[in-house]
Amino acid sequence: MYLGTQGQPVTDDELKVLSQLGVNHISSDPPGDWTSWDRHAFAAHKEKLAGYGIELDMSLMPLGSRSAFDNDSGHVFLGESKERDEEIDQLCHLIEEAGAAGVRALRYNITILGHLRTEPQVGRGGAQLSSFDYSKLDQTLGEFEGGAADADEMWERIDYFLSKVVPVAEENKVQIACHPMDPGIGNRLYRGVARVMGTVDGLKKFISMHESEYHGLNFCQGTVSEMLENPGEEIFDVIRYFGERKKIFNVHFRNIKGGFLNFTEVFPDEGDIDMLKAIQVYKEIGYEYMLMPDHVPGLAGENARRVGFAYCYGYINAALQTV
């Protein structure tokens, strides 16, 4: 278990800063359009990072956290179509190329609505905090433009996707790590769409489908905490459940205040989750990959994002040393 990060550091200085802060593992992508990411592009990216003492731990399949219409592989979870099958074939090829370059894992999202948030809150010193209050979610929007999808339909689409990609991941020894739907809203529909990957039971069902040691989770501790009525008490057993089954391939290590349907994302030291206890649980279950910051509060001043992430790197590193 070790400190990591995610993103696209593009300058030499950014890479130097990561190395200087002790961040020696990263989830990052080669430059250029994802359709050009072959084994040579991955190898070149790995070599560049290695020059700064940074290891490419994982990369990203073009299934991000935004709406399907804002993703490069936007048809994958929109139901049956020629475009869906073509994009899944491209993703399978990407897995093969990543495997040939020795990339450990690829992370991705299953979502067609993207992440949902309401008005941000103000935190300590005026920091801007991403927040969600279901009672304030805009319910006037019509059915999702890509069509409604109830729970049965969503699970059918997920099953189809997994049936295609899991055998390829297994053959090429590449872990594929899925991020939960953020936030979970239980069994409710929003815009006619079921967010089936937004409950702990949904995640349990997901990892049982097309069982493979290469099929698991990009375990966003913050998102999973948002699914729980009492995350400060419940999150540790959830970590144990997925960790003991070796289904956690990456951890987004962030804290929240609140819980199911009403939460605010905060600095790691001020939320409802005992983050040191969480790291102790990851150690207990033998978790062996990255802990990385995610959704860092918005700060004032220059280089706000880098400063916020640097604060979280220091927090995670100190916590790791403690355990």
From TrEMBL:
Q: Which cofactor does it need?
A: Fe(2+); Mn(2+)
Report the domain of life of the source organism.
Bacteria
Please name the InterPro entries in this protein's record: Man_deHydtase, Xyl_isomerase-like_sf
Q: Name one GO molecular function term.
A: mannonate dehydratase activity
- What EC number(s) are associated with this protein in UniProt? 4.2.1.8
Q: Name one GO biological process term.
A: D-glucuronate catabolic process
**Catalytic reactions of this protein:** D-mannonate = 2-dehydro-3-deoxy-D-gluconate + H2O
First-level EC class: lyase
Keywords annotated in UniProt: Iron, Lyase, Manganese
Q: In which pathway does it act?
A: Carbohydrate metabolism; pentose and glucuronate interconversion
Task: Outline what the protein does.
Answer: Catalyzes the dehydration of D-mannonate.
Question: What family does this chain come from, according to its entry?
Answer: Belongs to the mannonate dehydratase family.
Q: What is this protein called?
A: mannonate dehydratase
Q: Which organism is it from?
A: Candidatus Lucifugimonas marina
